Amino acid sequence: MENLLLINIAKHVDLSEEEKQIVLNQFETASFKNKEILLKPGQIGDWAYFVQQGIIRNYTIDENATEHVLSFASPGWWIADMYSFLAGKPSNSYIEVIDDAEVYIITKDKQEELYKLVPKTERFFRILIENSLIANQQRLVDKLSLSAEERYENFAKKYPEVKNCLPQKHIASYIGVTPEFFSKMKSKLLRNK
Amino acid sequence: MENLLLINIAKHVDLSEEEKQIVLNQFETASFKNKEILLKPGQIGDWAYFVQQGIIRNYTIDENATEHVLSFASPGWWIADMYSFLAGKPSNSYIEVIDDAEVYIITKDKQEELYKLVPKTERFFRILIENSLIANQQRLVDKLSLSAEERYENFAKKYPEVKNCLPQKHIASYIGVTPEFFSKMKSKLLRNK
DNA sequence: CGCGGGTTTGATGATGCTCAAGCCCGGTGG
DNA sequence: CCACCGGGCTTGAGCATCATCAAACCCGCG
Q: The whole model's pTM is what?
């Protein structure tokens, strides 16, 4: 059980050795450098990434030119513009590498092929969508009911490995505060313990 | 094209007359009175409602005993605890009637049967999930980037028929402010035009 | 060395919350 | 028919949270 992608899939469905090979064959691999933009608004992002190395983020920019991080992906996580990937329509978000990355890529077409070759993978991807929906809903409730400090705690739990290896401003954006406020909050947390 | 449910489905997939009958047969119908609770946290909500008449809401209660409305459903809308329905796990939200309602109900099991009987319905329900995910993501971005007034505008656009026929405090909860603040905001909006 | 992005710090201000009181209005019982 | 009750809405004062703007700082990198 060497491969991170296969480990990830094995969390939800059991595959034989042959099936594992078929699965891997549907993916491409790629390497990207820090700051590479993998998707821009207007483009159709009909593919999904599985991160092996590095960090990738998905974010939007609102009419005030403020960024909002929708999700991070560190090794072992999936990331895509869900709207574009699912509906096949032009994206309204960015996907950007924020730490040199190695990834598996699967296109929508290859995914459909895979469903035919190994039907139980459909179950796997359905669970991914469900989890994404559930996580989004929970994040909305968190934003509605928790303070910035509590949201930061939740972030730290969700992405423990990521916490210390990316620009603070991205974390601030994820929890929904300004970099300035985040800095003050963090120094207050340090003083109080 | 009499039936609201069939009209709704026809937005995404074309059905023959026979197929329409098969579809309708998988649903139950029911009537509920104002204030009836259709689902509570801990219960497994492995079914979905399609509203023909009335209004239903889905909400959670956080640790401060504050309600957060996740969604409303007026005639022509679907509503369910997505987590419970998709994952088959105990819900952590309430589904409550807030205006006497007539609904179609489909259970997860009946849905699976329907997929076998009329495969293209799977496409229809997949689109529902996608839209739900997209709407949630947009709502998160709205909460992160818009003021309460702007979020109220969005609400009014999304649920025009509902705006004037339910308690204000539910609207306040949906846009994420206190009833007091919502009241002040509304009277300010009236003064300014 | 100097530049530039990220972070820190401070002063000020807006947004939205809390608590408390009063009001409106439909329903219910005497 | 009226009195009263209660839930929802309104209004106000004071407050907490978080944003904005501006300046200084830090530090890796050309």
A: 0.90
The pLDDT of residue A50:
98
- The residue segments making up the domain with residue B33 are 4-118
Residue B178 domain-assigned (yes or no): no
CA/C1' separation A167–D28 (Å):
14
| Of B18 and A1, more confident | B18
In a domain, B168, yes or no: no
CATH number for the domain that contains residue B50: 2.60.120.10
Chain B contact set for A62 (CB, 8 A): 141, 144-145
Has residue A130 been placed in a domain?
no
pLDDT for position B80: 97
Which residues in chain A (126-145) have CB-CB distances under 8 A to chain B? 127, 129-130, 132-134, 136-137, 139-141, 143-145
Nearest-neighbour CA in chain A from B185: distance (Å): 18
Answer whether residue B84 is part of any domain. Answer: yes
The number of distinct structural domains making up chain B is: 1
What is the number of other CB atoms lying within 10 angstroms of the CB of residue B98? Answer: 21
CA distance to partner chain B, nearest, from residue A14 (Å): 18
In this predicted structure, what is the pLDDT of residue B108?
96
The pLDDT tens digits for A76-102 are 999 999 999 998 999 999 999 998 999
